[in-house]
Design a protein that fits this description.
Elements (H helix, E strand, L loop, with lengths): L3 H41 L17 H10 L6 H5 L5 H7 L15 H20 L1 H5 L2 H6 L3 H21 L1 H23 L13 H22 L2 H8 L6 H5 L1 H49 L13 H28 L4 H8 L1
Length: 351
């Protein structure tokens, strides 16, 4: 039979450890509360806000590595941000925001840096891919096409057919540069999240909001130039023609204004942000789990070599990145189509 005395002793020791841990937790919580209260009082006295700037967890990338090499986990304080006392890496990694913004706790410039890297990479690919069209004659291109030339032609023709299938022949050619640029830029930025030491800028709500606002400004400009202010107002009223429709026009105006100015840009931004952030969180969880398994099985190398649990999810990440870029471009084309005049197309259809 087991020794009940030893078991009782273990239970007493475990209870003592739990009590000690609870006391430490309460003491730590009280200390944090005291620090926060002191910081608030310090700010209320006009001496600045000494609260530390926080940063959410994320996949490792080269900006994070450079920051932690120099500063460790010191992101600075709100007071230092207000006074412009943060270093370049602190501003780049922790962000320039010194006051809270709704739904945005931090705004690191690193997202803009990675978005710029993605744009430069896309421009380099376009310049390299179109080089044969600039250096060779048209007859030579037809007689001796290269693999790169054929790949670029198939890519452009496929995108052209996709846009024309939504907007029609004339409007498709007119708005192809914007829609295709939007698609390929978002695709490149989405795929940057699976490249080692890089980061997907579209996992930031500020970047996706910027893309959504650019799309909104573009189709709002199209609506003003193609429809005109009067026709746009009638469009927002539901294009009423009968007395009942005119009676319901104020209600339709409110609904259409919410949809046109708020719901459409917001849906574009949140959909892309949520899906890409979820993809990065999944890859990060699998990466951490692989390191934990490796650290438990092989002492000393768990921090550097992990079980490749992320490998099966890379295919899912590539598929998700392409689908989200396609959905963003597709919805942008549909929003443009909705503000284009349709009377002329209907007349052509009758002829």
């Amino acid at each position: 039979m087991p020794d009940t005395t030893s078991i009782d002793g273990l239970i007493i020791l475990a209870d003592a450890d739990l009590d000690h841990a609870a006391e430490e937790a309460f003491a730590t919580g009280d200390a944090h509360a005291a620090v926060a209260h002191e910081a608030d009082a310090h700010a209320a006295d006009g001496h600045g806000d000494s609260r530390p700037i926080t940063h959410p967890p994320e996949l490792p990338h080269f900006v994070q590595w450079a920051f932690q090499t120099k500063h460790g986990h010191d992101y600075g304080t709100v007071e230092e941000a207000e006074n412009g006392e943060l270093s370049f890496l602190q501003v780049l990694h922790a962000g320039p925001l010194s006051k809270p913004v709704p739904f945005v706790d931090y705004a690191p410039w690193e997202n803009n840096l990675f978005a710029g890297i993605g744009a430069i990479f896309l421009i380099a690919i376009v310049l390299f891919g179109t080089r044969p069209f600039r250096t060779r004659s048209k007859a030579d291109l037809i007689r001796n096409p290269t693999r790169l030339q054929l790949a670029m032609e198939n890519l452009v023709s496929g995108t052209d057919e996709f846009v024309k299938g939504i907007l029609g022949e004339e409007n498709g050619r007119r708005y192809l540069p914007f829609i295709s640029s939007l698609f390929f830029l978002i695709l490149v930025m989405n795929l940057m999240g699976i490249v080692p030491f890089m980061k997907a800028p579209t996992a930031s709500l500020l970047i996706t909001t910027s893309l959504a606002l650019a799309t909104f400004v573009y189709y709002f400009y199209i609506s003003l130039t193609r429809l005109g202010p009067v026709e746009l107002f009638k469009h927002l009223c539901g294009s009423p023609t009968t007395m009942v429709q005119w009676f319901l026009a104020p209600l339709m105006l409110i609904i259409e204004c919410i949809s046109f100015f708020i719901a459409k840009p917001l849906s574009l931004a949140l959909r892309l942000f949520g899906n890409i952030l979820g993809k990065d969180i999944l890859l990060g969880v699998m990466l951490g789990l692989g390191l934990m398994i490796s650290g438990a099985a092989f002492k000393g190398i768990g921090h550097w070599v992990g079980v490749p649990l992320t490998f099966p999810f890379y295919f899912l990440a590539i598929l998700l990145s392409a689908i989200q870029a396609l959905v963003f471009a597709l919805l942008s084309a549909i929003y443009i189509l909705m503000v284009l005049p349709h009377d002329h197309e209907h007349e052509e259809g009758h002829h």
